[in-house]
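Reopening: structure tokens for the iron/sulfur cluster complex, inputs below.
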Amino acid sequence: MADKAILFDATRCTGCRGCQVACKQWNELPAEKTTFFGGPGYQNPADVSFNTFTVLEFHRDGANDRDSDGNWHFLKFQCMHCTHASCVYNCNYLWGSTPEGAACTRDPESGMVWIDQTKCRGCAVCTHGDGTLHPCPFGVPRQNYPDQPPKTRKCIGCINRINSPYNLEPACVKSCNTDALVFGDRSTIVSLAQSRLAAALPKWPEANVYGDTGPYGGLHIISVLGKDPAFYRLPPKDADWSENWAQAPARSAPVQYAGLGDVLAGLIKATREA
Ligand code: SF4
Ligand code: SF4
Ligand code: SF4
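Re-run output (same inputs, fresh job):
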């Protein structure tokens, strides 16, 4: 099987969050009690978690309506399935020589990175690293603390679907009815991202492709972004500290601000412009 990838095209995403729901359903993840959250990103729930593997983030440029263009910029956030994945490195470093072996591994068929729950000890070195090992640069894997036994989970790239005899596409992709999500061979997805970018540029002058060549040796989530990666708090495209993880900055945790009125007004505008 060739290396696989998922395209996320922000210029076609309507923010419906069908992907978020489909992921919950396929992975049998329980609902979470949430509170209103605003910025950076106005999504709900605020972030990925042990029970939420993907979140459709809502970003608005400008701190308030006066200095914003009033548009919403969507990002489907989950594990990016890095080619140079610190989580795989760290888990293997700590547990690779034990009889059970490392829990966090790359699927040799598809290139997706997944955590074998039967082997995971919940040590969190994939998430946070330690003095020498660097954390996941996207801050993705999450623990179930204080539940027992301690475990860590994240998006598994739906390897149980794509490696099945039925060759199913990932559940999130299946749910997307605007073709903002597309699954296929990685080389095909990269080409598709480039052609989507060319088509989007007249209306989205800051659009760019993220994950094709970098960061971290290239990702298996290839995104057509409407804005610069920094706008979404993503590492720069040329980021790759796989030779020296200690220098890599991590994606900061979201903080709260803004009011419900802003969000509703923006949602109405985004819906009208979709
Ligand atoms: S985003 Fe984080 S958890 Fe996902 S493959 Fe990369 S390093 Fe691992
Ligand atoms: S929490 Fe699990 S997947 Fe992460 S490093 Fe520890 S054993 Fe590996
Ligand atoms: S690939 Fe599967 S596990 Fe990952 S976000 Fe999509 S539905 Fe969820």
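Residues 22-23, 26-27, 53-54, 78, 155-158, 170-172 surround iron/sulfur cluster (ligand 3) (CB under 6 Å). The two ends are 36 Å apart (CA to CA). Marking as resolved unless the reporter disagrees.
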